[in-house]
Amino acid sequence: MTAVILTQREIRQLLPMAECIEQMAEVLTALTRDEATSPLRWGMRLPGGAILGMMPAALHSRRALGLKVVAVFPGNHGTPLDSHQGLVTLFDADTGAPRAILDATEVTAIRTAAVSAVATRILSRETADDLALLGAGTQAWTHLEAMLCVRPLRRVRVYSATAASREVFARRAGERFPVEVRAAGSAREAVEGASIVCTTTSAREPVLAGAWLSPGTHVNAVGACVPSARELDAEAVARARLYVDRCESVLAESGDFLLARAEGAVDDAHILGELGELLCGACEGRRSDDDITLFKSLGLGVEDVAVAHYLHGRALATGVGVQVELGGRRRGLD
């Protein structure tokens, strides 16, 4: 059986951000309707703080079956390599034969920001136009692109703990995107007055304080994905109406929520719903222009499988990628 292999550059070519946003809205809705299976990820800790994780999933409505294997190496920060390395493999839903092998770095970069854009579209004020980015890495780039797809941004402020990183990001982003981008001298300077905040850092301690948030702000918290790490302090979580990609993931993995709960700032009832429930009208979102809303992103395997299924079809239709013969045959038949 023929399988397609796609590189980082080819995935970027075949998966426009605006299209991925619509794909993610569809898959989150499917998950809420029990048309998909997406178990909690499994991870093996490695020396130096690295993690090797596996994220299997099935999207029954599209007969899509797949697995992401991702190696998260924080030590890659400051090198040419992204911190997230790995593969997404798509399997034939009838035979189990491999159908596609994709670079996981690019899939993760695009689909994570696309899910944040879905959250921003349904939770932020329609007039939100001032973006704060905390972090200046891969996810900051894709989040800026994604936010521009759903809101009419007029100003962007970026803060990174490394001055050179935020200055380079501001200059290059200002050249690439049709919006003013400025490097901020502190996280507080970036956040105060912003109507959308995206935290995309590798921080283990809070980089966003609740006291800095203006009424009406929407926050996408993306970076911290283990119980011991957080980007938001307890006040930021407590002040916000909290929504998640999957409740069981947040209760098992989100330091932003779990540490705030341990400090007595919130309880489990503070989680108001999942994005899929919002999309289906099963829970209430923003109630007023003064509400602070928070989307806690952890990432789901079904998002990767949906992207793999879409890219497989696009690759076959366009001839992009390398096609190879994969799929083990029984001995004696070859």
From TrEMBL:
Superkingdom of the organism of origin: Bacteria
Tell me the Pfam families matching this sequence. OCD_Mu_crystall
Q: Which InterPro entries match?
A: NAD(P)-bd_dom_sf (IPR036291), ODC_Mu_crystall (IPR003462), ODC_N (IPR023401)
The protein's name in its UniProt record: Ornithine cyclodeaminase family protein
| Species annotation | Nannocystis pusilla
- Native organism taxonomy: Bacteria, Pseudomonadati, Myxococcota, Polyangia, Nannocystales
